[in-house]
Design a protein that fits this description.
Elements lengths: L37 E6 L11 E6 L5 E7 L7 H14 L4 E4 L1 E8 L5 H19 L6 E8 L6 H12 L6 H11 L7 E7 L2 E8 L12 E6 L5 H14 L4 E2 L9 E6 L11 H24 L7 E9 L2 H13 L1 H8 L5 H9 L6 H7 L3 H7 L12 E4 L2 E5 L4 E2 L4 H7 L4 E7 L5 E8 L3 H8 L4
Parallel strand pairs: 5-6, 9-11, 10-17, 12-16
Antiparallel strand pairs: 1-2, 2-5, 3-4, 3-11, 7-8, 8-9, 12-17, 13-14, 13-16, 14-15
Helix pairs in contact: 2-3, 5-6, 5-10, 7-9, 10-11
């Protein structure tokens, strides 16, 4: 499905214009607005040495249960909370990515990854603790965790904190904001986003600023909606949304062990999105708008970052190719370094685009390709012809293959245009109608310093 269309700059020939791609997604508010049917809260349990909030709970309120869908990291070191959430959804819904739930718990400061059978036992104990505090069944509890890999959860601190927090969860925006703040590790800002459309609200909270790369990133997110939706519908919507948003961000080229996105629906609004295709399409765009905004916030807040990098691609053979090219550009360390120096070095973009490959079959299938086409194209090179490619940096056309390649441009003006908090790269491949985008950030000395001392 194509959701972006190219729009020429006023007064400039459409054949040479490379304007930003407009979006048909609904507007987003960057605030936590809790939908009906949920309560939430966050507090300090003592997991983090920093003494910052590190425990969050989000639970059902006034509804029988929550429809749930999830997308997880494919990392073979997937953490204990990931594996337990998969098992719980399989228990309630028949497969690991959708089912029913009552509560989400997040512990921050300890990833509980690469901890072996002891870590699995710890996570199961967390489930029992939450079940006792909330009255929920253990298989109706979804688990998130983030922090240092290879460390054990301090259950002696978690248990009393869960009991205390469960007794004061709130159906307020402040309660949801507190949960969002408790998700954070090295995040410099709390990440929230909300869309309200056609009687339905979708709100998301997220964390993640390092070890972020396509094929899910080191990030956690919980998306909440008061829409009435089945787990199967949520699963279909979420898979496509993740393919266009969180699978399109990169901070440093590394992926992690705990990455998880949950989409939970309470049904409290009474607006069903299951049977009516038009309502479902509006709902899907609302979910995508929230996810896209959270993904942009994560990329902009990358460890040590000074600029958000947005790459928008048009004219690709199809959307999958466009996304692959955009993802290759924002993932390039050379491109990231050039942005840090505000160097309009278009050769870095051309080289990255020329190396673009499509993601694996699972991601392509989730984005809407048929299973057969996804298997055939997974990992293949994206179509690109240097003779039809055009590149613009921060509004300056720098390369036009049809006109012979490099285009004379005012380098000083382009460098100045790159000086803001967001740098836009626009590529048109001249091969078809496919469009896509991806988000990254510059690579700085601060990133190296922060990650050279992460555990010390």
């Amino acid at each position: 499905m194509t959701t972006l269309r190219e729009r020429p700059l006023p007064g400039v020939g459409a054949e040479r214009a490379l304007a930003p791609l407009p979006s048909d997604l609904p507007p987003v508010e960057r605030r936590a607005v809790i939908p009906g049917g949920f309560v939430a809260g966050g507090m300090r349990a003592g997991i983090k040495a920093s003494e910052r909030p590190d425990l969050a709970l989000i639970a059902k309120s006034g509804v029988a249960s929550l429809a749930a869908a999830a997308v997880y990291t494919p990392n073979r070191f997937a953490a204990a909370p990931v594996r337990l959430s998969q098992a719980n959804l399989a228990s309630t819904g028949g497969e690991p990515s959708s089912g029913r739930a009552d509560v989400v718990i997040c512990t921050s400061g300890c990833a509980n990854a690469a901890t072996g059978p002891a870590g699995d036992a710890d996570q199961a104990a967390v489930g029992r603790i939450v079940a006792a505090a909330t009255g929920s069944a253990e298989d109706h509890i979804l688990h998130l965790s983030t922090g240092i890999i290879g460390t054990r959860l301090p259950l002696d601190r978690v248990e009393p904190a869960v009991a205390a927090l469960a007794s004061r969860l709130e159906s307020t925006d402040e309660g949801l904001l507190a949960a969002a703040e408790a998700l954070r590790t090295t995040d410099s800002v709390t990440k929230v986003a909300t869309v309200s459309v056609d009687g339905v609200r979708v709100t998301g909270i997220a964390k993640g600023v390092g070890m972020i790369h396509p094929r899910m990133a080191t990030m956690l997110s919980v998306l909440l909606t008061d829409a009435d939706a089945s787990p199967a519908v949520l699963r279909g919507v979420l898979r496509r949304v993740v393919a266009r948003t969180w699978n399109q961000i990169s901070v440093d080229g590394d992926t992690s062990t705990n990455d998880t996105v949950f989409l939970l629906a309470s049904g409290a609004s009474g607006v069903s999105v299951d049977a009516d295709a038009a309502s479902r399409a509006v709902f899907a765009k609302a979910v995508e708008a929230v996810a896209r905004d959270l993904a942009r916030q994560q990329a902009a807040d990358g460890e040590g970052a000074t600029a958000l990098i947005t790459c928008q691609v048009s004219g690709a053979r199809d959307d999958a190719d466009a996304r692959a090219v955009a993802r290759a550009v924002i993932s390039s360390s050379l491109v990231k370094a050039a942005v840090h120096g505000r160097d309009p070095n278009w050769g870095r973009l051309a080289g990255a685009a020329g190396n673009a490959t499509l993601p694996d079959a699972a991601v392509l299938s989730g984005s809407g390709l048929s299973a057969d086409e996804a298997r055939t194209r997974g990992g293949s090179a994206a179509a690109l012809d240097p003779e039809t490619l055009r590149i613009a940096i921060a509004g300056h056309l720098v390369y036009d293959g049809a006109a012979g390649g490099p285009v004379p441009f005012d380098r000083a003006a382009a460098r100045e245009s790159m000086g803001g908090k967001e740098v836009l790269f626009r590529l048109d491949l001249g091969l078809g109608d496919g469009v896509g985008e991806a988000f990254g950030c510059d690579l700085t000395e601060t990133y190296v310093r922060e990650n050279s001392e992460y555990t010390t």
